[in-house]
Amino acid sequence: MIFSRSGKRRHATHRPRGQRMEEAAAATVEQESALIRFDNVSKRYPGGHEGVSNISLEIAAGEMVFLTGHSGAGKSTLLRLIALLERSTRGQLHVNGRNLTRLQRRDIPYHRREVGVIFQDHCLLHDRTVFDNVALPLVVSGLSHGEVGRRVRAALDNVGLLQREKSLPITLSGGEQQRVGIARAIVSKPPLVLADEPTGNLDPELSREIMALFERFNQVGVTLLIATHDLDLVRKLGKRTLVLAQGRLVDEGLAHG
Amino acid sequence: MARMASQPSPARLGRSRRFNPRGWMTRHLQVALASLGRLARSPLASMMTLGVIGIALALPSALHLLLLNVEKMSGDWDSVASISLYLQKSIETGQAEKLAKRLEEEFGIAETQLIGRDQALAEFRAMSGFSEALGSLSDNPLPAVIIVRPAPGDESPAALERLSGRLGALPEVEIAQLDLQWVQRFHAITQIAGRTVWVLATLLGMAVVLTVFNTIRLEIQARQQEIEISKLIGATDAFIRRPFLYSGFWYGVLGGLLCWLLVSLSLWLLHAPVARLAGLYESGFALSGMSLYALLWLLCASTLLGLTGSWIAVGRHLRRIDPS
Asked: What CATH number corresponds to the domain at position B141?
């Protein structure tokens, strides 16, 4: 695994705008190593409140990174900026070799398809079966029926819910519902998965299971960015951890157990 | 997930993926059927919406049909467009016959009918009830009359007036009488009726758009969560719009069919009384129903109205959960 902590490097590799397309096509080494790059990114809401202020960071492809901080520190905002659920108001944000600050409205859905998002409250459709919930990203992308079935079962098998495919989410436990949400996030094999407090409502035992699942995804090359305030769990895993406070990046390093 | 996640190629967005017409058709068919299924799952609500659409469309359709029938009926009254030439009393029957022949040749007249002086007197005697008073007259007071039917295509009020003027100028003719006022009034009335049908159709068409708009708006509200989640995981606007547009489409098509059913039923109910009335007038007139062409027209219009309503509803709600 590559640990990219090269915040200082970005000034040296600053590029003029005109070259953006060529560089994107050429896929430079620098871009391959940094899947996510924030350059002085701020998000200011109408009314003046800043969700995140002046954030600069890089996350390399294949990393598994934790994002911690108190409630309201800007963890969710940061994730939402990456998935383009919100747009930054200042700075440059590159994800997957794409400049999100310049992405047009009609291109947003195609970006979201390449980022799997796991929400704390699962965001499942309660009138659809587990299978249909997990299939949604593939249906949205217009995959054929057979391909959808194959991939959904593979994803459900991954999270250990294959035998519950016909159940309605409401009949599942909290941990199982979260795993359905995870299956939905990975079913389209996105290179990047974001998780916002994925263990927020789960007991320690279930939390450990979920984290083990994430580690397995990471081992097959998925880049993960996980927001959590479960510091014990983060320390045990010993991964790179970003600490946010009042919208600013205050600490960055390996968390030690 | 057992496989390594594919490395992203930065310049490529899913949008540039090759267009596959077969997959596109399949998806549309699926969505269309799913939307139809959704209507079927709440039959009472759907029937109420369809009822409103059907009745709103049936009113102008039925009036239009009625108007067509009235025009058809008036087409049977060709005699309306005829000119009566009252000849000078000095003209005898033989001369009148020659004149009638001449008229047919020279003025391009379809048909002439001569009523000689004696015949006119006999008819008048039989019909007026003045037979005794007429008997006391030493002389026949009635002139010979030639009834002229203009050639088809010359039946417009202006052409009739011109022809009447020319015939009236002939030396043998004392008066040329054209009963044009009645024709003109009838024309004016049918024109007003036609215009009324269009105004009504426009207003009720707007009512259909509003009905569909409101129905789709409620459906969007009920499926708000589904729309939001679909957007979060990368559904395009077109993808989200599609099921609602198909709902509007079905409302239009089914509402149009219901309208046709209602109109046909009304005609069927009117059929017997109309036949009785026509019998009293010794006419073979029968109400004609909606032609296939008119039905197609109706379906196209109702589909368009349904689509318009749903399009407006979806357009207003789509942008709500976009990042700004």
From this structure: 3.30.70.3040
